[in-house]
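Action item from last meeting closed. Structure (229 res):
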């Protein structure tokens, strides 16, 4: 995996550089002490993985990651423990609290490698599968078996055939970006359904596998257009 590290502390960058060399499967191409310079580089030369500090002058790591134009795996490397939840809301691969050991770094790097390999596999399989993180493990979901997706506070519940339900920490926006755009439709601020599973369109809901899923006024016209195709 090609990687970049951004941290305003040169010692931390040196540690990451040494650890990347020791794990062997992460090629650290560039390091940046200036977060704006790092962002500019990454938007021009995308990489697979980003090691990113949070507390930096001019631009903090959370805001920097949100400004990336490309989808990039991120491991936050920071002295702050209080930003872990926000980091995982951004679908971070891992969150390393300084000072971290080589063993802990290696664990995070291996996790990133698993994500990367599964993403590559997903592309090779023509988008038949969705990969999500569930309790720090990667789950492979056959997209055709998703019944509907429901938002629940900071989590999503993915209802799958055979009465399985997975709970993942992800936003609706992030999920919609992962799903094939022509196969899924948002019916409500809290619900996404597969278009080909809509059996019946009702006044304020759609029928999916004998389940009533709500449709809000804001999405009704769009759902009607999809249903009539």
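Sequence:
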């Amino acid at each position: 995996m090609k990687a970049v590290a951004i941290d305003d502390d040169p010692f931390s960058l040196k540690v990451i550089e040494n650890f990347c060399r020791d794990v062997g499967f992460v090629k650290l191409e560039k390091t940046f002490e200036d977060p704006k310079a790092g962002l500019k580089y990454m938007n021009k030369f995308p990489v697979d993985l980003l090691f990113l500090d949070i507390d930096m002058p001019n631009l903090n790591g959370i805001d920097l990651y949100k400004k990336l134009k490309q989808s990039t795996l991120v491991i936050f490397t920071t002295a702050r423990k209080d930003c872990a939840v926000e980091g995982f809301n951004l679908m971070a691969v891992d969150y390393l609290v300084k000072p971290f050991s080589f063993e802990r770094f290696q664990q995070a790097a291996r996790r990133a490698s698993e994500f990367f390999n599964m993403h590559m596999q997903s592309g090779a399989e023509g988008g038949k599968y969705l990969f999500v993180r569930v309790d720090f493990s990667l789950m492979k979901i056959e997209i055709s078996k998703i019944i509907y997706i429901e938002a629940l506070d900071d989590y999503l519940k993915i209802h799958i055939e055979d009465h399985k339900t997975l709970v993942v920490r992800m936003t609706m926006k992030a999920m919609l970006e992962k799903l094939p755009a022509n196969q899924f439709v948002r019916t409500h601020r809290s619900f996404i359904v597969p278009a080909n599973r809509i059996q019946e369109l009702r006044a304020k809901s759609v029928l999916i596998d004998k389940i009533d899923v709500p449709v809000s006024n804001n999405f009704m016209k769009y759902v009607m257009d999809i249903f009539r195709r």
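Note appended to the action item: The domain at 2-124 is CATH 3.40.50.2300 (Rossmann fold).
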